Amino acid sequence: MQFGIFSVGDVTTDPTTGRTPTEAERIKAMVTIATKAEEVGLDVFATGEHHNPPFVPSSPTTMLGYIAAQTERLILSTSTTLITTNDPVKIAEDFAMLQHLADGRVDLMMGRGNTGPVYPWFGQDIRQGIPLAIENYHLLHRLWREDVVDWEGKFRTPLQGFTSTPRPLDGAPPFVWHGSIRSPEIAEQAAYYGDGFFANNIFWPKEHFQRLIQLYRRRYEHYGHGSADQAIVGLGGQVFMRKNSQDAVKEFRPYFDNAPVYGQGPSLEEFTRETPLTVGSPQEVIERTLQFRDYFGDYQRQLFLVDHAGLPLKTVLEQLDLLGEEVVPVLRKEFEALRPSHVPASAPSHLELVAANDAKKTEANR
Amino acid sequence: MSTLAVVSAGLREPSSTRLLADRLAAATVRSLGEETEVVHVALRDHAHDLTNNLLTGFPAGELRGAVERVVGADGLIAVTPVFNASYSGLFKTFFDVLEPGSLEGKPVLIGATGGTARHSLALEFAVRPMFAYLRSLMAPTAVFAATEDWGAAGEAAGGLVERVERAGAELAGLIDGRGGASDAVSDAGADRYDNVIPFEQLLAGN
């Protein structure tokens, strides 16, 4: 199983000090957080993509390329890459370039975004959200697999004899996740291609995501990619830890109460009960995260949100220490002991994708 | 057996809005002439969870069950006090947090209360258009009860008693007429997961 963190990249005032970081500070903090993730033994760093304040990550491959140069093992990913409003040709180029620079340590997650005006700002129509996600990804999928593409669709200018460069590293396109919090169409899309499905379950109750993930698993099997329990599932998580549970609650409460997403709404206690948010000791985080497997089945990637709501960098780095030292080693061992041998342990790495490609070619040449 | 959900947005205890809702429910049950399960949802009990739902996007705690019971019922009676010439904010909030399509085709009887009959057209100008937008199947009669109605002679032509009986009979007729189709309609949300549109169809044209 792969463990990592995903960042929204929000610039938020620290409610306990009233201090707001500059964009430069926040961007550099994200890089520090990513390199720290590798240092404490995590596997993945994923950044969001946003095109409005108070968010900084509008240019994910620039940031991930820089992080790639400072890390050795970390998988660089996104959460999410806007498949609706980005030109799929540019996504194909940008991520293939990143793949080469990062020696294959790249995958990415497609999403439709949650900010309405981004559609018109990038010349698209929000009412076409799902059709855009479907057509654009279909083109992206071809651009990475066919050297020369002739293409015509509804949403962008046609392509005649187009080759997206650089070609994917070793001929193996990066692994793709599709993220969705409420669209069965996207679970169906992930199943159709045999791609991963990421359910960002952190803000809502589990029942909703059980239906989405069950749908994805069932359809993954239907399309012949393997059995339902072999489908590649990723989940979110949101944690704040201190050695003592009460210290965690006391320290996190002002950040919770003023958080941009749910601030001034339910109490910390109510939200903890209803959603995966866990504020407490490392042991409580371990127990809560292990429950995810009971709800959703064996899964392959767990991403935690740890750097939002104005938490200072120092605190975030302490959270990463706790994750790396106390939580993830236990979770790795426990999940691995429970996993049946026919279920993949993690999303395929670059080398595994290359090997699978080679096997397919050998098969075809027979 | 059918189930009848009764949503009332009265703020005080006891509440004349609740009283009107109960009367409408009783009239509907009498007209259905069969065993009917009546589920009452007093929105006052869910006021905090409704605000939280606006902020978080999901119904927590007891509100979740209330939403499920209303969406799953065969018929709905919805009664609001009139505030500032319209439904109350609490009443609107409840219908704002339901998933799109939840009340499509559902038989609905609307009612409202107010100090004087001068407020009665709020039903036709505010409440009815909202349910029309939600594509509910509305009883033609909407019942408004002003304070003075509670002291009027019972048998008066056009009086509250008659209006309640007529509206209840209309709603019962709509529930009967649907002949159990309500599951298919109200389950539209769950259906999106069970009967997914095959990807080849989504991809058509590409």
From TrEMBL, chain A:
Organism: Actinomadura rudentiformis
SUPFAM superfamilies in alphabetical order: Bacterial luciferase-like
Gene Ontology terms for molecular function: monooxygenase activity; oxidoreductase activity, acting on paired donors, with incorporation or reduction of molecular oxygen
Top-level lineage group: Bacteria
InterPro entries: Bact_Lucif_Oxidored, LLM_FMN-dep_put, Luciferase-like_dom, Luciferase-like_sf
Pfam families: Bac_luciferase
Protein name: LLM class flavin-dependent oxidoreductase
All residue ranges annotated as the Luciferase-like domain in the record: 1-294
NCBIfam families given in the database record: LLM_CE1758_fam
GO cellular component, one term: cytosol
Keyword vocabulary terms for this entry: Monooxygenase, Oxidoreductase
Family matches, as PANTHER family: BLR5498 PROTEIN, LUCIFERASE-LIKE MONOOXYGENASE
UniProtKB/TrEMBL annotation, chain B:
Keywords: Flavoprotein, FMN, Oxidoreductase
One Pfam assignment: FMN_red
One annotated GO molecular function: oxidoreductase activity
Domain NADPH-dependent FMN reductase-like: 4-150
InterPro entries found in the cross-reference section: CE1759_FMN_reduct (IPR023932), Flavoprotein-like_sf (IPR029039), FMN_Rdtase-like_dom (IPR005025), NAD(P)H-dep_FMN_reductase (IPR051814)
Keyword presence, Oxidoreductase: yes
Transmembrane segments: none
Superkingdom to which the source organism belongs: Bacteria
Name of the featured protein: NADPH-dependent FMN reductase
